[in-house]
Every structure is written in structure tokens, then in C-alpha cells.
Amino acid sequence: MRHNWSTLMKIRGNLSTFFNQLFECELCLEPDGSSTGICEECLNRLPYMGLACPQCSESVSTEGLCGRCQRTPPAYDYSYCSLSYEHPLPHWLHRCKDKRDTRQISRIQTLMLMARPAFDDQPENHPDIVTCIPTSHRRRFWRGFNLSEELARAVADDLGLAFHPLLKKTKHQEQRGRSARERASSQTDMSIETNLDLTGKHILIVDDVMTTGSTLHTAAALLKESSAQKVGAWCFARTPKTR
């Protein structure tokens, strides 16, 4: 079933790339032939992340951990977000996740990998396993895919690492539309689902959008309870800090 769906998405992605080359940049309507569907000038103007806390990825004015992470650090050891969740990203994510526009998957994967974290050559800083934030069976059935998993598979392939779905959602709980306080206080129903020995492993969790970090915190805590030594996160986008 997974193989058939992946093949279908690749075919659609290839067709989308072909037709994108015949038209113009989606954002400025200038001629464009890139696989992202946007021209180089618009690509350079996307909302890339600026200076951010190395642990929670929240925007900061000075280098180093933010005050919140110094006081109450999350379970994940670091995080990285490729872009800030600002125009046009919400539109693309809405088309992908709510309108089931699978053509957006390839675009999001490409943009995420273009703005990548720098994993240095030190073995302790390089992940061993890539996993993803799971979605509920109901949500997956409705969409036909889990965007976080599609991004994680692309990241794993790019890094030359194994992808393993280590976590599962035990109950659907919609997070969008909830306030930061509601997200932080809500109980994310998630559990470990693997027979792999995670002892001493460095695990990289991939997700699409990071808002408060509460879901990543829950996932990282579960992985560390299963003896993972280090857990980091790489997300496509981070919601801007609210003033």
C-alpha cells in the first residue's frame, strides 16, 4: 500500500515539475522553470529564519539559549527550523494538508533541504536515526499521507540515514486553532511503537511546523525514556514569536 502511494506521488510530482516549467513563478508571475515553482528572486525573499535559540528555535536578539530554555529546558536537546511560518508558507501548507494537494509535498521537501542545519563531522553531533511526529489514523486516512513522514523520509535519504516510525498517535487531537497555553497544557496522546534498541542513539525528529514545541517535547521525552541519548528536531517552519 505504501509503495503504491509513493509511486503515485512521484508520478504526480514529476508531472507537476513538468507543467511548472511551462508557466510562471507562482508569487511574482515572472517566467520560471524551477522545480519549486517560484523564481530565484522570490526564493531569496522567502521568510528564512534569523537568529534563534539553538534549543527551541524561538527568535532571539542575542546568541545563546533563550531565557525560557535556561529556566525550563524542553526534553529535546536542540531544534532547527528551515523557515519562519509566514507568507506564503501558510498558504502552501493549507493547500497540502487541508486541500490534499500532494504537489506541495515535493516543493516543501525541496525548500526544507535547501535551508538545512549544519551537522558537523563530530560523531556525537550526527544523528543515527530519523523519525517523525505521527498523525492519527483518522487524519492519515482523510489526507492519504502524513506530511511529517514525507519530510522525514526526504531528510533521511538526504543524510544517508535510516528512517524509522518510532512513535504512534493513540488519539486524534487537533492542535491548530489552539492558543499557546492550551497547546502547552494539553496532553498529547503519543506512545513508542518500535522494537529497535534506542540505547545511546541520537535521534532526529522531523515535523512540518513547530509552534510551541510541546509536541516535540512529548516525543523527545518518550524517546529518552526508551534510552535514547540525544534527541533533536528539524522542522520545515517555526511560527513567529507572538508579542
TrEMBL record:
Residues 172-184 have a biased composition (Basic and acidic residues). InterPro entries: ComF/GntX_DNA_util-trans, DZR_2, PRTase-like, PRTase_dom. It holds the Pfam family DZR_2. Residues 149-242 form the Phosphoribosyltransferase domain. SUPFAM superfamilies: PRTase-like (SSF53271). Residues 24-70 form the Double zinc ribbon domain. It comes from the Bacteria. This is ComF family protein. Residues 170-191 are annotated as: Disordered. Belongs to the ComF/GntX family.
